[in-house]
Amino acid sequence: MSTPLQRILAATDFSPQAWQALERAARLAKTHGAELALLHAFEHVPLIPAWGDPGGGAWVDEEALLDSTRAHLERVRDNLTETYGIPIKASVEVGAVHRQINARADGFGADLVVIAASGASGLARRLFGSSAQSIVRTARHPVLVVRRPADSDYRRIMIGTDFSEDAERAANFALRLAPDAAVSLSHSLEQSTVRIPAPLGLEDNEREAHLARARTIAAQGLAELADRLGRGQAETRVFDGHASQNLVEWAATWNADLIAIGAHGKSRLEAGLIGSTSLHAISDAGCDVLVTPRIE
């Protein structure tokens, strides 16, 4: 039997998407009997003019703005407490959001950080990232990125693996998060997309023979992983091509409500130019995404 989560930290920017993430965090906390803490972080506290001052000489100071924000967060907390019947802590911090989340998660001893999927799109998102991507990229704790309403427990988890220890750790944590969910395990043979001219590499028939063997080995690896996870009946799939695309497409086809993956850590430039499976999933998946960071 998996160990229930003990402490969950949920970050909010008070957007409608963030409310969905808070509801998911509260549902998980209730299911697991875990402590739940809410966090709102300012990058900085701006000076803003007071409404109704005709001369423009009065300003809302930092203390007043923080007090107002704390009061709003407490109302959000009280709403969740009433709905889910669980005690909830709440705090407001000033500083870079990803740093404040890491610091609060460390101090709280969080098993899981919950945030909303949001941010830019297109090239800007690829190169510079959304808030969710920045948080995931620097995370020291597993991060659940919420995209869908939390109207039920997770029923179908799609787990991507490259057979590394990090990936298996991520798979185990996913089953700890949702122990009753159905599971699909997948692996992508990215080398299948690499073609070298015959004079410099393998003839087509030789190449296909090597790929066929690689597919067989990967299928055996998935079956063995399923057994180690205690999910011997899990569906397994080996794909040709890039994991980032296969994960998103297969999750939609299989009707997954959660993708689980391990993060290997890339700089912002590397993630934008080279690509990152976890960041791609956060950007493009139609379901929630659980990213478990590497343990250094």
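(the above was protein one; protein two follows)
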Amino acid sequence: MITVISLGGSIVAPDKVDEQFLSAFVSLIRELLEADERRRFIFVTGGGGPARTWQTAYRNVSGGGSDDQADWIGVMATRLNAQLVKAVMGDYCTQDVVTDPSRVGPLVGRVLVAAGWKPGFSSDYDAVLLAERFQADKVINLSNIERVYTGDPRKDPDAKPIDRISWADFRALVGDEWVPGKNVPFDPVASRHAARIGLPVICAAGRDLDNLKKLLTGEDFLGTTIG
């Protein structure tokens, strides 16, 4: 029973590391692992606030710069967050942080932590590749939004929450182009691959750990199922 979670940088490190969230998240994961020895988790961390801060600095200092270099800066931020998550999981995570999902070996411990790979997409795509590699039945995408909306609710007062949406309709919302630091519910490149292999993705609020526990234990939860 392998669960793949794309752990958004916006909840691990929205500005600086959210220690309160991380402590509560680790406690929940430990509780679930101890309750069922069959459980395995794969966490793929995003870059969060530090990635955007460093990317903005690069753009400002270089007078624009390139998407490729901005992406590499974001990748490095994901790796710092991933190393932190691996460390706080302690003995449950015995493998090194995965930085290339195309070359990962078998799952050895109870928890595997992965980070960004290379330019051209976000860590969401790595989560999809790892779900495909380990035959997970879905990806859980945790971020700072509780559901996908028909538009950006911060800008569109008429935006409506969506409980379930097809990949075709979701991709029409987010487009197909990846730009470093792009803020969408799920990366367009990851969405394209998930749609191709028929992999569902559930988007839910990362900080709502009561809701996450319901999701992970098969109870009714608040979120958006894509696919």
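Reviewer note on protein two: Helices lie at 9-12, 19-35, 48-62, 67-88, 123-133, 167-174, 188-197, 209-216.
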